[in-house]
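WARN retry 2 of 3 for item q-0093 after timeout on previous attempt; input resubmitted unchanged.
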Amino acid sequence: MIINPKEIEKKSFEIITKELGHLNIPKEYDPIIKRVIHTTADFDYGRILEFHKDSIKNCVDAIKDGCKIYCDTKMIIAGVNKNELQKFGSEIYSFIDDPEVVSQSKETRITRSIIGIEKACKDKNTKIFVIGNAPTALFKLKELILQKVINPKLIIGVPVGFVGASESKEEIKETSVPYIVTNGRKGGSTVAVAILNAIIYGIKNDT
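OK item q-0093 returned
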């Protein structure tokens, strides 16, 4: 039995690499896909993760420039490696529990995710949006992009669910903004964390 955490992780990635052997995954995306599979134990992510050609470069450049990253759940904030982000002057935040957002949501009966996106878009240094839970956030992002209110460097769109999740990802892919999405119903906050952390670790290993 392996009890050393690093050895467990190493063995896990060896198993993942072996089982993914039949897929021709581009080198640039390989560590991201493997980290998502490591997080979920679901090899479907080897085929349902889709990357815009500029997604990784844009994300790396934005983080190195000290951008803000908006996300739609506290779980994403908890899971992302904030210490590494801070080394570049970048930060991750959310308005999902912001008192003003909560109050406005109750008054208007509009989801906190939508109102949170609207508020985040007022900060022009918010260059990356990470959505792991709410399809409505992606629908709102598309609307604001088309209205030229925002022009993010990247959208990580991986909401999970049966109502609007698949459709919202397709909507984001129709915009001019680079994206990383999970096609279909699968996704979630843990998947979003795995994607972002894999990119952050890639920057760390390159410096």
